[in-house]
């Protein structure tokens, strides 16, 4: 744990001042309690290292759920000029467009009671979980290329999504990806994984709306107390991981001198104008399209399963938002509008009302922001904060943030015990193994309530509703 010159700027705002190596200050959004936890790993070192990258705009940022990642901290945000700046795979992550979507259903909590075990078993049987394990949607390589290019548009055209699903996704579920730039091994890994949950912290969770904080926003999002919703957290699976891995190697081989000079080799990057950078961007966007299609296929599985178990269930998409991505956006910098390539790594876009990117149905409210907590603590729906644009390039946290490594979690927790304890709290969990449950035990995460409190007080993501888990499936 390195000691840094970390200065308090304001309530819940700290900063590492710019020094000789840094091209901008490094800013930390956290309470004192969260900061104590952040200090336990390399998060501060990493956010400071990101500030040494060429052309960084305003600040290197870490959000309230920040913890150590690959190169960039998880919960990290950094922006660079969209034409003359850089792109860095470490600022996006291996799981390209890992994200969250929320489905609102016509069920109430009373409809679920007594059927939780039936429901969790039905969902576990419908949605492939774990490493590999196939996908809900059977496709071939031609279909895969269509998905990589079209994202949710392809899913709508082929009967796997509704028009409203497309309109309620960040970027309408499609970025200008190029399937030809995706490595062949990544294609091989992705062809059988459309509609699969994966492993690690990914989950599909049936929840009830426990608390409403903002009535107008909740009504706009279709949420009411004791209403049943479904949250899906997954990404681009093996395809995205392989794409990131391949391009990291290519960047290192293309820029050996530049890589050797970095304060951290994991911050390898390329000028966005260079061909290899544009190839990576196009492959990353294609992988993002795959992730949207993946979550959409699981949505179809949920719709069919709920209808089979309960009959006549109406299910609509509230929103789908990614938290591992770099995208071109317009932001005001020093009083002038600039096109920036905003890297979000474990960070959720949180645009307020008034931004063109917010769906028409939420134009007067702001973008829904979906922040999952642990299996025991519940999750939150926020709306884009009024101060998010000035403070964090329109970003907030993406979850509770880990306190403990997976290795340590398996030493400290026993999956069966965690499962039993959650069952005593009326939370039904089903996973491929007890080790998976141990790795994701509630005790390995920070206090989601504190993360949300800080986000809300900073005005970067404002509280709308809190949900509590009913049934959870994991890989």
Automatic annotation (TrEMBL):
GO terms for biological process: tRNA splicing, via endonucleolytic cleavage and ligation. The active site is at residue 398. It catalyses: a 3'-end 3'-phospho-ribonucleotide-RNA + a 5'-end dephospho-ribonucleoside-RNA + GTP = a ribonucleotidyl-ribonucleotide-RNA + GMP + diphosphate; a 3'-end 2',3'-cyclophospho-ribonucleotide-RNA + a 5'-end dephospho-ribonucleoside-RNA + GTP + H2O = a ribonucleotidyl-ribonucleotide-RNA + GMP + diphosphate + H(+). GMP binds at residues 201-205, 323-324, 372-375, 379, 398-401, 474. Binds 2 manganese ions per subunit. The keyword Manganese applies. The keyword Iron does not apply. Mn(2+) 1 binds at residues 95, 202. Mn(2+) 2 binds at residues 233, 323. Keywords: GTP-binding, Ligase, Manganese, Metal-binding, Nucleotide-binding. One of its GO terms (molecular function) is RNA ligase (GTP) activity. Its cofactor is Mn(2+). PROSITE patterns: UPF0027. It is an enzyme of class 6 (ligase). Its EC number is 6.5.1.-. InterPro entries: RtcB (IPR001233), RtcB-like_sf (IPR036025). It comes from the Archaea. SUPFAM superfamilies: Hypothetical protein PH1602. Monomer. PANTHER family: RNA-SPLICING LIGASE RTCB HOMOLOG. Belongs to the RtcB family. Essential for tRNA splicing and maturation. Acts by directly joining spliced tRNA halves to mature-sized tRNAs. Joins RNA with 2',3'-cyclic-phosphate or 3'-phosphate ends to RNA with 5'-hydroxy ends. This is tRNA-splicing ligase RtcB. The lineage of its organism: Archaea, Methanobacteriati, Methanobacteriota, Stenosarchaea group, Halobacteria.
